[in-house]
Amino acid sequence: MSRRAAPGALTPAQRRAVLASDPMTGEVAGSPATGAALRGRGLAVAYGRAGRYYLTEAGRRLREELREKSRGGPCEEPSPAPVPAGRSGAAGPAGSTGSGAFTAATGDGPPSREDPGQRTAAVARAWAGVLEIRRVTDGRAGPGPGAPAPWERTRAVWAVSLALEAAGVPPSAVDGSGRRTRAGYRVLDSDEPGSARVEWRGPAASAGRDHAERELRRCAEHLAGRGWEALLYWGARRAPFLLVTPGTP
To answer: Using CA atoms, how far apart are residues 35 and 215, in angstroms rounded to an integer?
Structure first.
């Protein structure tokens, strides 16, 4: 259970960092040492690149108390939720470029060299982090995955890839020459902001149109259970694909 710090227990630097935290994301303003100290008090979590910290729910409540105290009355400014990575200070998901703790498999890279069990555990941790982002962002307390958070919508290819892999769907893979070596999903950018395109690709013998359509329909079901809406379309040469957009809460 996170410890709760009274306003008077914070140092001046810690109080300034809490008060100046980003109103939309909860990112802590101040040095990494200050962020680490707030984390030790249960008021922040480490997330993404080293040195970045975000307020927890307890941190946000404390921020409002500090603002009320400094203004001498109730705070009229709403406090949007922060974007934490997960519980217990675990590292959260990285961006779509793989610059942090987790790189999503989009289906356009080589087969993973990770031990299958380690990869499964890494995917599960990243997915748990995304669910925590959603929970804190929209304030939901009920069951279900909820709708994708704004954080996910700005990196839809990464988020959709993670959702599929977390559902147990295999990503496609290519060798050094770009030749498909494994059948699976492939996630690409779409023309619509906050959305992604999903194809089913693989070696010629395993990527027939009828087979691809069946697999994409399964992908659509998995995505629907993880907060995304996926509609099946047919592109050039009647090749099927999914247009994936954020679902509604």
So the answer is: 45
Beta strands in 68-225 (DSSP E): 173-174, 180-182, 184-189, 196-201
215-224: pLDDT as tens digits: 999 999 999 9
Map tokens 């990575």 to a residue: 85
pTM check: above 0.70: no
Burial label, 95 (beta-carbon count in 10 A; 0-12, 13-18, 19+) = middle
Element (H, E) at 215: helix 209-224
Which amino acid, residue 66? L
Say how far apart CA 213 and CA 181 lie, in whole Å.
19
Q: How many CA atoms within 13 Å lie on the side-chain side of 136? A: 27
Structure tokens, 202: 């693989």
Bridge partner residues of 182 (DSSP): 173
pLDDT attached to residue 58: 85
Task: Kindly report the backbone phi and psi dihedral angles of residue 182, in degrees, each rounded to the nearest multiple of 5, phi listed first.
Answer: -150, 140
Burial class, 185, CB count within 10 angstroms (exposed 0-12 / middle 13-18 / buried 19+): buried
